[in-house]
Automatic annotation (TrEMBL):
Residue numbers spanned by region Disordered: 1-22, 64-98
Pfam name, any one: HTH_18
Annotated InterPro entries: Homeodomain-like_sf, HTH_AraC
Provenance organism: Kitasatospora putterlickiae
Key words, A-Z: DNA-binding, Transcription, Transcription regulation
Record's compositionally biased regions (Pro residues): 89-98
Domain of life: Bacteria
All copies of domain HTH araC/xylS-type, residue ranges: 24-72
Protein name listed in UniProt: HTH araC/xylS-type domain-containing protein
């Protein structure tokens, strides 16, 4: 493992867990906007124990429910996904499985 690695992330104001959480958030919002997968299926695909844990994380990140994000992403004139559905900066979310 590169001893310089953690320092580089710190220089950018982030951490390994913060980057992993940002990737998870991006994947979840994309799945909500572009698929018809159930919340349970999205939770399973993204490492959450169940739909309830996923709903808590999305509400913490975005201040809204997964269903509301899904509806907003498929509004009038939106062929697939619209960017900017979740404007709140990511905060600490629940641990997967928790």
């Amino acid at each position: 493992m590169d001893p310089q690695g953690p320092g580089r992330l710190d220089e950018h104001g982030t951490t390994w867990s913060g980057e992993a959480e940002a990737l998870r958030r991006t994947r979840i919002t994309r799945l909500l906007r572009t698929t018809d997968l159930t919340i349970d299926a999205i939770a399973a695909r993204t490492g959450y124990a169940d739909a309830r844990a996923l709903r808590r994380a999305v509400r913490r990140w975005c201040g809204n429910t997964p269903d509301a994000l899904r509806r907003a992403g498929r509004g009038p004139g939106a062929p697939g996904a619209r960017p900017g559905l979740c404007h709140r900066p990511p905060g600490p979310g629940p641990e997967p499985g928790g």
